[in-house]
Amino acid sequence: MQLTQSAAEKLIEELGIKNIPLISVRPVYTTVSPDWFSVYKRLCKQFMTSLTDSVETLAFMNLTQDEFMNLIMGKALPANMSFRFRIPLSWGGALDIDNMFLCHTFPHSYNMDRFIIQQSGNETVWLPNPAKKIYLPSQSSLSSAGGNGTEDRLTETIASQIASNRDF
């Protein structure tokens, strides 16, 4: 069943994904290059290091100091975090940093997949397209083990230093 924008917004909110813009896409079924995964792995590292311009958002993720540093240095993605393509590669999306965003795997990435799969076969598909590089719902009840208060303050301090060094 083809969704209207208001029906799509209601459906994604019912899945627990709040305040996320949606874009309307007509899937252009495309063959993905055989070397896509090696390019994707390089892009993931580049994307992680590009997150230094998003330190204020990162501060709300409740990461430990090690998770934070590994993320912005392009070494490791924290547990329960996923990279997503704004437009899937097989639907004509570009293998490019601008086509990516970061979000929690569960429940957000999982529910985004459910939302997209429910639209299978439609001529036009509504896709999540957050304004920023990181999707964090404004009213999330998510929390992670994070660190202790000292580590949390240290992460925020590091984030502030990076932001000030970049003139934010």
Q: How is this structure best described in words?
A:
- With 168 residues, the chain is of the alpha+beta class.
- The chain is 40% helix and 11% strand.
- It is built from six helices and four strands, in the order H-E-H-H-H-E-E-H-E-H.
- It has helices spanning 5-14, 36-50, 55-58, 65-72, 105-117, 149-165, and strands at 22-25, 81-85, 100-104, 125-128.
- The strands form two sheets. A two-stranded antiparallel sheet has the order 1-4. It has a two-stranded antiparallel sheet with strand order 2-3.
- The model is unreliable at 139-151 (pLDDT under 50).
Short description, anyone?
The protein is of the alpha+beta class and 168 residues long. Helices cover 40% and strands 11% of the residues.
What tags apply to this protein structure?
two-stranded antiparallel sheet, alpha+beta, 40% helix, 168 residues, 6 helices, globular
